[in-house]
Design goal:
The structure is a single chain. By secondary structure, the protein is of the alpha/beta class. It has two domains: 187 residues, Rossmann fold, CATH 3.40.50; 168 residues, Glycogen Phosphorylase B (Rossmann fold). The protein contains 15 helices and 16 strands. Strands 3-4-2-1-7-8-9-10 form an eight-stranded mixed β-sheet, with helices on both faces. Helix 1 crosses helix 15 and helix 8 packs across helix 13. The radius of gyration is 21 Å and the shape is globular.
């Protein structure tokens, strides 16, 4: 089509077992292609590869592993990345890492390439979850965000919550573009009694938590919620889908407290993951720094309400199709009980209806608009 653009995308922190960011990159790339553009994704990995996939061309460059992150790698060879960018001659640049890749904003300015930084997390929220005191975290985040806003033509935030930290510093080049959910793959009809029987008895409450097991996701809150529910006489069981550096510690903690928690590790089969989400009574999303929360949205699309952290952007995403809780096990347990008190049909219909507000086609249109790119997207998410 006329006006087709080569949109080169750079991302760090994309591990083989990572979830939300990998999903967003895949779906946006496929959407860009459907709109007639030529997306190229550059990510770090163990070795070089250059492949064509449904999301477009994917180039993997050898990246340095980050210790204690469960497989994350980063692109550290600036010269090699810069040479590749020069060879690719992008019409647009899209960057999903505001720390180690912020230098690409200056490269884009020199090359006269319009560049967008996608804020997949709040700097303030991440620093806070890693233990930095509140005032220090806010000051450091303001400095980092000011540099980010200066380095790129536009900063894309996926929610109003994520946008606030840029508004606070007076940035005027921020646009909002929500992410989406695959409404065909994630659907309530996937609820499976065989999946339930595998993990819980008929009279038990089945909870699911689909998250990376790392500090900023606060997965321990899910275990604390199960302990509190059982203390209150609620026969709850938790299934955890996800992996990460905290897994061994969490498994030991569950054993020590004799909690009925099943750790599945990374679930590569997306249909199997959707079946788990559809079968659960409630899904938990305890991460306090989430700027969107794709796993929670996928649960809603599967007809399962989500209990989410009040400190994150997720209350904005789930609306009334779930419940909001403080960042501790007791609060999450109370929110689970609140959800379970609603009629099953009502809560499942409300969850699906909310998810239908977030199709990937709308997300692709919003991201292409941020690039000032021609928008012509075929509806892929028709319900």
């Amino acid at each position: 089509m006329s006006g087709a653009l080569r949109i080169v995308r750079l991302a760090n922190f994309v591990a083989p077992a990572s979830g939300g960011l990998r999903t967003a990159l895949r779906e946006l790339g496929a959407g860009y292609r459907a709109a007639g553009h030529a997306p190229v994704l550059i990510v770090p990995g163990e070795r070089f590869s250059d492949e064509w996939r449904a999301q477009g061309r994917v180039i993997t460059l050898p990246g340095a592993p980050l210790p204690a992150t469960g497989g994350y790698r980063v692109l550290t060879e600036r010269r090699r990345v810069a040479r590749l960018l020069e060879e690719l001659r992008p019409d647009r640049l899209e960057v999903s890492d505001r720390t180690t890749l912020r230098w690409t904003g200056e490269w884009a300015r020199r090359a006269r390439v319009p560049a967008v930084m996608v804020s997949h997390e709040t700097a303030h929220g991440v620093l806070r979850t890693w233990g930095m005191p509140e005032r220090a975290a806010r000051r450091a985040a303001d400095v980092l965000n000011a540099r980010t806003a200066h380095a790129y033509a536009r900063v894309v935030c996926t929610t109003e919550w994520a946008e606030r930290e840029f508004v606070r510093i007076g940035a005027r080049n921020v646009v909002r573009a929500p992410l989406g959910v695959d409404l065909k793959r994630c659907r309530p009809e996937l609820a499976d009694e065989r999946v339930r029987a595998r993990h819980a008895r008929v009279d038990e409450v089945l909870l699911a938590m689909c998250t990376r097991l790392s500090v900023e996701k606060r997965p321990g809150t899910g275990l604390d919620a199960v302990a509190e529910l059982r203390r209150q006489g609620v026969p709850a069981r938790l299934v955890v889908a996800g992996d990460g550096p905290l897994r061994a510690r969490l498994e030991q903690r569950a054993r020590a407290r004799r909690l009925p928690v099943t750790f599945l590790g990374h679930v590569a089969d997306r249909d199997a993951l959707a079946a788990l989400q559809a079968t659960a009574d409630v899904c938990l999303a305890p991460g306090p720094a989430e700027t969107f929360g794709l796993a929670a949205l996928e649960a809603l699309a599967c007809g399962t309400p989500a209990v989410v952290s009040a400190s994150s952007a997720l209350p904005e995403v789930v609306g009334a199709a779930g419940a909001v809780a403080g960042d501790n096990g007791a609060a999450f347990a109370a929110a689970v009980r609140e959800v379970l008190a609603r009629p099953v049909r009502q809560r499942r219909e409300a969850a699906r209806a909310r998810a239908e507000c977030f199709g990937w086609d709308a997300a692709v249109r919003a991201f292409l608009a941020a690039h000032d790119a021609p928008v012509r997207v075929h509806e892929r998410d028709a319900t």
